[in-house]
């Protein structure tokens, strides 16, 4: 991973196995191609062994200048008592000038 990897972090139990997982933002992924699409990498935790050495889940954006992963938050969005992953993208292109978006991934 590269692209400002680790500039945003969130700890949550994304796969609901009772062990904390780590979500890491890398909003400048694609900078070598001047696309800056960004990415979020989720590393599952394992009891007694820590985090996976490679990301278990990679979330990417299809749009240039998306900067996905600029901000991350662990919050219970759907009200089920479990933290969900909230991902911010402040520079996502829209129907006009650049506009951002927020996406929640339920755990």
From TrEMBL:
Coiled coil: none annotated. GO terms for cellular component: extracellular matrix; extracellular space. FG-GAP repeats lie at residues 1-52, 54-107. Keywords: Glycoprotein, Hydrolase, Repeat, Signal. GO terms for molecular function: glycosylphosphatidylinositol phospholipase D activity. Signal peptide: none annotated. This is PHLD phospholipase. It comes from the Eukaryota. Gene3D superfamilies: Integrin alpha, N-terminal (2.130.10.130). InterPro entries: FG-GAP (IPR013517), Int_alpha_beta-p (IPR013519), Integrin_alpha_N (IPR028994).
């Amino acid at each position: 991973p590269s692209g400002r990897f680790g500039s945003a972090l969130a700890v949550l139990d994304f796969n609901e196995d009772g062990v904390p997982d780590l979500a890491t933002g890398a909003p400048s992924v694609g900078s070598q191609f001047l696309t800056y699409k960004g990415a979020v990498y989720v590393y599952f935790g394992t009891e007694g062994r820590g985090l996976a050495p490679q990301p278990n889940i990679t979330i990417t954006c299809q749009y240039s200048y998306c900067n996905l992963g600029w901000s991350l938050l662990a919050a219970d969005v759907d009200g089920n008592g479990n933290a969900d992953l909230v991902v911010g993208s402040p520079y996502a292109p829209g129907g006009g000038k650049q506009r951002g978006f927020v996406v929640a991934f339920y755990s």
